[in-house]
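Bumping with the actual sequence this time:
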Amino acid sequence: MKSRLREILQPAVIVGALGYFVDIYDLTLFMIVRKPSLTDLGFSGQQLVDLGIHLANLQMIGMLVGGIIFGIYGDRRGRVSLLFGSIILYSVANILNGFVTELWQYEVLRFIAGVGLAGELGGSITLVSEILSKENRAWGTTIVATVGVSGAVVGGWVAQHMDWRTAYFLGGGLGLALLLLRVSVAESGMFTALHAPAAAGVKRGQFLALFTSVPRFLKYLRCILIGVPTWFVIGVLVAFSPEFAKLLGVQGEVVAGLAVSTAYLGLTVGDFASGALSQLLGSRRRVVGGFLALTLAGILAYLLVPGLPAAGFYGIIFFLGLGIGYWALFVTIAAEQFGTNIRSTVATTVPNFVRASLVPITLSFGLLKDAVGMIPSALIVGVVCLAIAAWALAGLEETHGKDLDYLERF
């Protein structure tokens, strides 16, 4: 037992968990401080919703761009270098975000922060997956995810007790402080082996190669699509929970910051449960399928049960977080599907394509909202997201216990 714990609790796992903690704190901070920050800048009413969607989309587009840049960088220059560059960029952007006085400044910095935030999860999951044995790697990625997503819980608490500008300063400062711990993290042996003479001529970080083969592209696409429901829940149901609560006649006030913290508390429990279950059951696919079913149940309860007390509504939000708690497991699945010379590219771009899916999700939600109303629109978009994810999961191979020491040939 001690030898297993010693293997799992390596510096890469511990620092990766802390890095993802800061990443999630910063990633969800805008959702938490959306209303007070935009109100402070002089906006009100429907502008708080419309500009909230606009700024969230800019952040997600930045993450899509950053996912490609940092993913390729991680396969060409190393997983540890990726993590250093990522955290410097988003930490500086968030510190500067605390000084904004104009909307255009907010827009630019949300995009830049998105670029930086893109690298943390994929880089950490890739590194941990490659340094741990196939028997224990899901435990490592589970620790990274469980500790990491709790950053949103802390972010919610901070936003309730500090000014929104101070909350941004704190997030950026935590990120810069984490750079000191990163010095202790060693590079992946699998990546280092790519520099050996036997690996001469191996192409690394070939993002476009994911699109030149139909089977490879479909596998990559399925890896992305299984994660889409997570950002429908976070980016629509949780982010706009105060507005949904009013329409549903919830008794009592629902605050966005507390809703985000509650959802991520559920996500923390779900991430640990999904990772542990995948180890105990010896299956990634069955566990993700079960969590998709939980998410469907949560969406139906959230949208179709009116008049709840605020505590009951928060309870459903917690359950929704639990349902989407397969987040790290789905990134682990993506990392396990591809060879070492393109693994960072895949593991870093996949979660960021999922995050960027918030753009078409919110656009679809907004268009349908005007036609059929907010609640029916959310129900339609949510069910479609889940149906797509179920289709994608059905076509992926089981990767529990798969040996990852292999290369992709292009």
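The tokens above came from a reply further down the thread. The chain has a mean pLDDT of 88.
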